[in-house]
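Final report, closing paragraph on structural work. Over the funding period we assembled a curated collection of sequence-structure pairs, and we close with a single example.
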Amino acid sequence: SLLRRRGNAKDLSGGKRLHARLIESGLEADRFIGNLLVEMYSKCGAVEDARAVFGKICQRNVFSWTIMIGAYARRGCGKEALLLFQQMQMEGVVPDKVTFISVLSACAEPAALGEGRRMHARIVNSGLLESDVVVENALVNMYGKCGSLEDARRTFDAMRQRNLGSWNAIITVYAQHGQGTKALQLFRQMQLEGFVADKFTFVSILSACASQAILAEGKRMHTRLLASGFGWDIVLGNALVNMYSKCGSLEDARKMFNTMPERDVVSWNSIMTAYAQHGHGGEVLRLFLQMQGEGVIPDKLTFVSTLSACASQAALAEGKRMHSHIVNSRLESDVVLRNALVNMYGKCGRLEDAWGTFHTMPGRDVVSWNAMLAAYAQHGKGREAILLFQQMRQEGVTPNEVTFVSILSACSHSGLVEEGYHFFVSMIQDHGIAPIVEHYHCMIDLLGRSGRLDEGESLITKMPYEPTAVTWMTLLGACRMHSDVERGTRAAERLFGLDPDNESPYVLLSNMYAATGNWNDTVKVRKLMEDKGLKKLPGCSSIEVKNRVHNFFMGDELHPQKDKIYAELQRLSRQMEVAGYVPDTKVVLYDTEEEEKQHILCYHSE
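Its predicted structure, as stored:
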């Protein structure tokens, strides 16, 4: 009883003290006591301790084996659980339904689909499917997590009897596979068959609405949930925050979050992820400070969101503080967080810190290499990116689609046209990766930057995808760079049709006309923008001073220290003139006097 209480409370230190007293009493090898110890350590997450006790139990029974297999499965150690199951059979112990449920949980990942199917066949041969709906529900869940929607549905359809758990399992599977509409259809069918939704049903349905951004249906489910009389539940609250954020309604997500009477780390992660995905990095960092103030301990997902926010804000000092938090939380060896750190340092302009984090990383995966390649690409280090790619291949890491987006981008930003062509062809012929539209965009950018605009436009007509706004914007940017007015006009006209409410193509076309002295057409484009109600966003630069990010806009009159800033700019301008600096007024795209152009350059946001 005391051991069970320690396990339920996840009191590992208290459990170890009890274990020590049992050793002194000579009871550790007793099967009943040994099973309770394995169970206690398992619930506390101490799988190694559980296995040590398991190895000392005399005459292990099916319960001994089952709780140890379950411990491995819960820890995500599927291979160890399956090996133990095989050892159990070799010792002649007959599995029961709980054993099979634990083994199915161990098979619940895409790499173990074959093993899961073999286990399904064994369960059929054992006769358990004739009478046990719980085992059948476990099979539906296992197939869903293995990525086999067809097997999950086939198992569900073959069930002679279904309970609410059966419906929850299949609805969850469809939600996990991004098929929210199908999940909602099953929910309605479930109701027609007389089943009443419980908390887990609503969590799955809200996830289904989130998977396909079905906001209207999500709001209806929220209303039904309130009418169902469940009362307050933190799991449902978290599901609602997640649903609203995934459906693009940040306001509703925040409102839901603010009204939650109790919040756990999942609640904070949900709202911070929402703000990070919507590009509000500053708010993510404010929420992190508020979370700490309320005494909630961050986990891995918290740090992933905050590092993403630091990257988007180029908030290096804040990013370094997050790195320190990760070290203090003893999470520094986690590969996901290491990858996020490489990405953050790369986007904050600290290539040496990105490399240091990457270079000292144990167990690098393909995402690690992609993050470092992307950092090199961003900094125009094409040659270094190519050497890193070669090292990646030497270490036996298989590149994926994202790898080639990064290496092609690196070639583009470094003017390595022939090398870019080589990687594009190699991707198809040597690695069997069919180009996605992002690869074509990289190639169009590569050709455009190097002035090979004919080839870039030709590639657009030949690629097996319908050109998007990004496609034509890439070409238009290259035309602006090389003053190809005729081709740029064609690209801009395509953009006007594809994305009529985007001001960027109008601005680029206007600037291209202005750069070539075609002021009449410049005025026409700007008038067209005015008629459509489109406005150019002012240029903005950001710097971090004393742990605070400051944003500066062209002609900024709102900054509280603007008078001092403008005075300093004038002082610097005078020093530059004395040193012989002559401003290049050709980049000022306004038909105005030379003196005014020099004034505009002085107060540009950069």
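The first helix runs from residue 2 to 8. Strands lie at 540-545, 548-553. We thank the funder for supporting this effort.
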